[in-house]
Design a protein that fits this description.
four-stranded mixed sheet, globular, 170 residues
Amino acid sequence: MSNPFRNSIVVATVMLAVLVAGPACRPSPEQQEKTEEATKMVVQEEPTLVHNVVVNMEDVKGKVQWRPIEPVTARRGEGIRFVVREHTAWVLIPEGGFRLVSGGSDWATGESITAFKVKNGEAVIILDESFSDKEDLRVIHYSVLARQIEGQWEYVHGENPPPRMIIPKK
């Protein structure tokens, strides 16, 4: 077999492999829908009003400790900004119905839970318009697990009960 003929066979084999493998590498319609659905979870528009939850340290009588987190009242369509500055925090909300607007990472949500990480900055979430009205006034207690730079993880609590969101009925 001569060299030019061998090269032609190799080129033809590679082209055949590309033609066969190309369509197989594309996602199936179901996978494409899941990818598009995950992308929709991140909201691009800013909420009408944003409330701040600040996770920070303070010096109390010579001892540095986490500052208590004040309750926040948010209506559907409004945002909640979790500010951690140079710290890192995990936020665990035992309710679904929240969407990520900006910042944050490791976002996980389900029908009855929302969890995300905020590192060196802030994250904004929005309370979805379709959030259910089970009661006239909803009070959601949530957890914030925070860490100073290379420090230990600690729960950030104010007065008992832990941090909370108050959601009025529509």
